[in-house]
Amino acid sequence: MPLALLALAIGAFGIGTTEFVIMGLLPEVAADYGVTIPTAGFLVTGYALGVVLGAPLMTVLGTRVPRKRMLMLLMGLFIAGNVLSALAPAFGVMLAGRVVASLAHGAFFGIGSVVAAGLVAPEKKAGAIAMMFTGLTVANVVGVPLGTLVGQTAGWRLTFLIVAALGVLGLLGIAKLVPELPRPEGVRIRHELAAFRNVQVLLAMAMTVLGFGGVFAAITYITPMMTNVAGFADTSVTWLLVLFGLGMVAGNLIGGRFADRALMPMLYVSLGALAVVLAAFTLTAHTKAGAAVTVVLIGALGFATVPPLQKRVLDQAAGAPTLASAVNIGAFNLGNALAAWLGGLVIAAGLGWTAPNWVGAALAASALVLALVSGALERRTAGTHPAGVGGSVGSGVGGSGGPAVAAPAAGAVPSHH
User: Fold this and answer.
1) According to the 3-state scheme, what is the secondary structure of 110-129?
2) Among 74, 72, 19, 16, which residue's Cα sits nearest to residue 49?
3) Which end of the chain is more exposed for a tag (fewer CB within 10 A), N or C?
4) No. of H helices and E strands in the chain?
5) How far is CA 148 from CA 69, 154, 155, 242, in A?
6) C-alpha dihedral over 147, 149, 150, 153, to 10 degrees?
7) Is 0.70 surpassed by the pTM of this model?
8) Distance between CA atoms of 359 and 362, rounded to whole angstroms?
9) Please, is 2 exposed, middle or buried when counting C-beta atoms within 10 Å of its C-beta (0-12, 13-18, 19+)?
10) Do the Cβ atoms of 404 and 315 come closer than 8 Å?
């Protein structure tokens, strides 16, 4: 794997840290600004919505800019947002800083996925994407717990300054290690939007919303579930989240490895197993050992879907992958917001702290149904059209989702991106 992927992973590490560390620092931030914790929660919601809106917006703005320069500009925006958050004199300014930082998130991962895939051979594309996303998963194992510890002991403002410094490191890494990539020739917004007429692209994005949403339905309410149901002390929740992060790292790498071999079967297995494990969590959450093991499995199975889903979008939108790739990152955050809201509804309805697990299982099962529909449509199309016709943008015609489809996209990425 090229060293350039390390630079992308460092940027992803910083972004992953700033996205999730705020959840552990809400009490400190709320106390500092004299607002309630639910009000401080807008720092989480605002960031997620900023990703959803910023992903297509920043990608469209970046269509006329060479990809390496755009990645550097996005890291600059990320740094500025975190510095603004760290120095914010009022809560509204802090919220603005969070939104500024979030605008870089979706486009960075979207453009970064295209760049990562273009740096390697066709049969290694999902592995390259997984390598970049490793930065995001490792952030949950190292960055978030350390950032929370620093914020609780030395002040939350220092945490955001450190995250900004990570952004500087990522920016320098991209400047030095990512090769100069020419601006895409003849790319127009209309061309990029054409990918969204492909039913397979839309199905992949819907799978992203529902599948990863299933994970967040459970994990958003992990603290009250583990303390009130499993009987863990409040201080143990950090280590449970570390276990979740370790599962994410493992699942991400496994998902990238097997998606390059058999993309759709990998999705069937991971989504199906995720639905089963989330449903089982309603039972295993009642014992400490069972809960700990299940949290690892949810992290692993949830993130095992990320590289294949991102590669699926890249393959199916092969002629114009950048906007579709970035919008799919927004879809992950849309799933997070939707699942957290649904999980809150069932708790508020008096169904118990473990009720969000059933929501998560239903979302993951729905994603599996869409994956089966997508695979069936693909097989039917393959039987209708002669070999070599698949993969055209906007036609709904896709290939296998594996190396056979990746080949034309991979050829396009180095020469045009």
Assistant:
1) HHHHHHHHHCCCHHHHHHHH
2) 19
3) N
4) 18, 0
5) 32, 10, 9, 12
6) 160
7) yes
8) 5
9) middle
10) no
Placement of tokens 């309410």 in the chain: 221
Rounded to an integer, what distance in angstroms lies between the CA atom of residue 263 and that of residue 415?
Answer: 25
What sign does the dihedral 344-299-401-272 (CA atoms) show? negative
Classify each residue of 177-199 as buried b or exposed e, where b means 16 or more C-beta atoms within 10 Å of its C-beta.
bbeebebbeebeeebbebbbebb
CB 265 within 8 A of CB 212: no
Contact status, residue 401 vs residue 393, Cβ threshold 8 Å: no
Average pLDDT over residues 203-227: 88
Amino acid at the residue 382: A
CA–CA dist 401, 406 (Å, integer): 7
The answer to whether the beta carbons of residues 144 and 21 sit under 8 Å apart is yes
Pick from 153, 143, 139, 8: nearest CA to 74:
8
Matching residue, tokens 């280590």: 239
pLDDT tens-digit series, residues 32-65: 999 887 678 778 878 888 898 888 888 888 777 8
CA–CA gap between residue 33 and residue 25 (Å, rounded): 13
